[in-house]
Design goal:
Blueprint (H helix, E strand, L loop, with lengths): L1 H19 L2 H24 L9 H9 L4 H7 L2 H30 L7 H23 L5 H26 L1
């Protein structure tokens, strides 16, 4: 009885998924991108990256070019940096979500890509951008490092896809 009801629910859900198409991803992606962009705007314009009263010497040295990135990184407040990276992740995730849906629809195995798959892949792209931004803040980002981090995330996604394909067979 329960299996029949689950099967009926899955069929109904698949029909609604085909009817709605990209609209849920466009709406959710737009909300995430706008919300993350607003958070980035607020963080960039109204929050100091380090405690100004204690590190006034750094505040004076930055416009004159007398400080190095390591000194700024050591003085930064960790919660502010993590909040900035989280807002960056959410913004990029929302921005690429409709694109990921269309790529999965075009090159995927099923006619309608799953919601979890699209959200996971969008999250991985946003996570890659956030890691690259973090490395650039410390001036350690290079093309080789960005490609290596991207390849690690692609291999992670491929392993998850192989696991799903194995469960379907």
């Amino acid at each position: 009885m329960l299996r029949e009801r689950i099967k009926q629910w899955q069929v109904r859900w698949h029909i609604w998924q085909k009817r709605l198409g990209v609209y849920p991803f466009f709406v959710v992606g737009s909300l995430l991108a706008v919300g993350g962009g607003f958070a980035l705007y607020q963080l960039s314009n109204f929050v100091w990256l380090f405690d100004v009263e204690q590190r006034l010497d750094l505040l004076r040295a930055v416009p004159l070019g007398r400080t190095d990135p390591a000194a700024l990184w050591d003085a930064s407040l960790t919660p502010v940096v993590l909040t900035f990276l989280g807002a960056m992740l959410i913004t990029v995730m929302g921005g690429v979500m409709p694109l990921v849906f269309y790529l999965n629809k075009r090159f995927g195995q099923s006619e309608v890509p799953g919601y979890i798959l699209t959200i996971r892949q969008s999250f991985l792209i946003g996570f890659w951008v956030a890691i690259c931004v973090l490395l650039q803040m410390n001036r350690t980002l290079g093309m080789a490092v960005a490609v290596l981090v991207g390849l690690v995330l692609i291999i992670f996604e491929l392993l998850l896809q192989i696991r799903v394909w194995g469960q379907l067979r």
